[in-house]
Amino acid sequence: MPDWHAIKNTDGRRGKETEGADAAMWSKCPKCAEVLYRRDLAANLYVCTRCGYHFRMHAYDRIAAIVDGEFVEIGRDVVPSDPLGWTDKKTYPAKLGSDREKSGLSESVVCGFGKIGAFDAGVGVMDFHFRGGTMGQVTGERVTMLLEESRRRKVPCVLFTASGGARMEEGMLALMQMAKTTAAVTRFMEDGNFFLVVLTDPTTGGVAASFAFQADVIVAESKAMIGFAGRRVIEQTIRQRLPDQFQTAEFLLDKGAIDMVVDRHALKDTIVRLFEYAVR
Amino acid sequence: MSNNIIVEREKGLVELERRIAELRQVSAAQPLDMSSEIAALEQKYREILQELFGALTPWEKVHMARHPARPTSLDYISHLDRFDELHGDRHYRDDPSIVGGFALLRSRPVLVIGQQRGRDTKENLRRNFGMPAPEGYRKASRLAKLASRLGVPILTFVDTKGADPGISSEEHAQSEAIATCLAEFTMARVPIVASVIGEGGSGGALALAIADRVIMLEHSTYSVASPEGCAAILWSDSSKAEEAAARLKLTADDLHRFGIVDEVVPEPLGGAHREAGAVVDRTLEAVDAAVTRLSALSPESLLEQRYEKYRRMGEWRAEGLKPTG
């Protein structure tokens, strides 16, 4: 067993803001430019009341929207180090510090246990607001802890992904998290446990190419951008502009890569329904 | 002009090599003793070689790993006792940027899979510069599964800039193809030995590199992202690639220190292509030793060891918990 301490998320540590908005009371929809009152936006699960645009959600907002009652977080005491002594425009620890400040998170994923409907489940939520949801060593460690503990408890596991891929500032040690999480996923699934992934905007690179696409059932949120290579990289390679639909959840559904596209409002019900079929 | 800095550097040497060869010919054809001139030139040649290639920076290694004459997967595979290529993903097509099939390694049946770049422009076009499409990874998954079922060890050769980033690859779910490949290698009940022989580019390389033993050539590179890509993203300036190469810790020595690579195979001065046959033999010897050692283990302990190996990868700080509630 990994050495972890379960802690209760009762100190109200929440994400401060949602993309496109500061801590103010108004948010502007990046798609239709509608100015939205934050309380209305939150009440509508961060979906634009005018055009249906799905804002990128903060991890704890997502957990509040999905988990019923108490959420017991694991792995929060595992925080990133700086194995490469990385510096680009800023030092890596400085970047981590400002991400922490901005997002209220200590890493790009929050993991823990709680009830979804009648089901006890492992729940992991990645947050794009922390280092673009990139997978570092702690991301990999926390996801691995979540899968191992879910396996031990014989409960299903649902992971919400949002990621720009493996984190460059941690070099190959970040890439190796694809291998580590894969190992944990295969063990979890081999034991007959149900692994569900919800792809949210955006899910690309090393996360898409490891645990995200290893799930038993893959659900995507409406209009989420999902792919292996980034849009810019592809456009540079082929020297032409890609159609707007390319790499959207709907595009992937059409190509047969995912099981379903679900509107955020229907997501929780969908998860519970899937658990009803798959979990016993 | 080549955009490979190693190739550029070798140009002057080629002239020197030609003069030495010429002098040797002249000397052999006539009674005049020219051995001291030849020796002097050879001495000079060695000195220049040492100066140019004695200590390579990470950026120079990036170029060495991409050197057009560097031995490719098929150069290694052709040194095995026998090779019968198996084709296709059984769904859509055969991807020539991944080659695979049965082979004999010192008369032991093995299954070999490698990324294959072209050795000239025409072959590069056919093999997509060694950047596999989903079909290539699906072929690799299929072969890994086959090897596992038959109890045949898996050898891989890693040499790719990365997985193909094209429209068709996205349409055919590149992410799923790589994710499944990782899972198949994780679960294969046979010894896996991976050799990073050239460029190890990101997830597209890792797809063939989950292994019980990872061997890497001295001047190969293995990186979370290409230095050019990394520079473009983090500095918005691809001319910072040289700096990115140094920061990414992508050399064999760095990765050996991190425990990601188990063994480094030395290369001759000036790179593997200068004594390709010897480098290939040395690498296959290391592969054979690893396969022999790993074959003594039961599938169960092999899988347990592999799990533990990757489970331990990564480091972090434990932060004191704030009181809650």
Structure description:
Chain A is of the alpha/beta class and 280 residues long. Chain A contains nine helices and eleven strands. In chain A, helix 4 (137-153) runs parallel beside helix 5. Chain A is globular and about 50 Å long. The two termini of chain A are 24 Å apart. Chain B folds into two domains: 7-54; 63-311, 2-enoyl-CoA Hydratase, Chain A, domain 1, CATH 3.90.226.10. In chain B, strand 5, helix 9 and strand 6 form a beta-alpha-beta unit. In chain B, helix 6 runs parallel beside helix 8. Chain B is globular and about 70 Å long. At the A-B interface, strand 1, strand 5, helix 4, helix 5 and helix 6 of A face helix 7, helix 8, helix 9, helix 10 and helix 14 of B.
Q: Which of globular, elongated, flat, extended, rod-shaped describes the shape of chain A?
A: globular
Topology order of chain A in helix (H) and strand (E) letters? EEEHHEEHEEHEHEHEHHEH
Largest interface: A-B, 70 and 56 residues
Overall 3D form of chain B: globular
Total separate domains of chain A: 2
How far from one another are the termini of chain A? 24 Å
What's the assembly state of these chains? heterodimer
How much of the residues of chain A is beta strand, in percent? 15-25%
Q: Looking across the biggest beta sheet of chain A, what order are the strands in?
A: 1-4-6-7-8-9-10-11
CATH class of the largest domain in chain A: Alpha Beta
- Write the H/E string of chain B, N to C: HHHHEEEHHEHHEHEEHHHEHHE
The CATH architecture assignment of the largest domain in chain A turns out to be Alpha-Beta Complex
How do you describe this structure in short?
With about 280 residues, chain A is an alpha/beta fold.
Topology readout:
The complex is a heterodimer of chains A (280) and B (325).
Chain A: E1 7-8, E2 26-28, E3 35-37, H1 38-43, H2 59-66, E4 68-74, E5 78-80, H3 92-103, E6 109-116, E7 119-126, H4 137-153, E8 157-163, H5 171-190, E9 195-203, H6 205-208, E10 217-221, H7 231-238, H8 249-255, E11 260-262, H9 264-278
Parallel strand pairs in A: 7-8, 8-9, 9-10, 10-11
Antiparallel strand pairs in A: 1-4, 2-3, 4-6, 6-7
Helix pairs in contact in A: 4-5
Chain B: H1 5-29, H2 35-53, H3 58-65, H4 73-77, E1 82-85, E2 98-105, E3 108-115, H5 121-126, H6 134-150, E4 154-160, H7 167-171, H8 174-187, E5 192-201, H9 202-206, E6 213-217, E7 221-223, H10 227-234, H11 241-247, H12 252-257, E8 263-265, H13 276-295, H14 299-311, E9 316-318
Parallel strand pairs in B: 3-4, 4-5, 5-6, 5-7, 6-8
Antiparallel strand pairs in B: 1-2, 2-3
Helix pairs in contact in B: 1-2, 6-8, 10-11
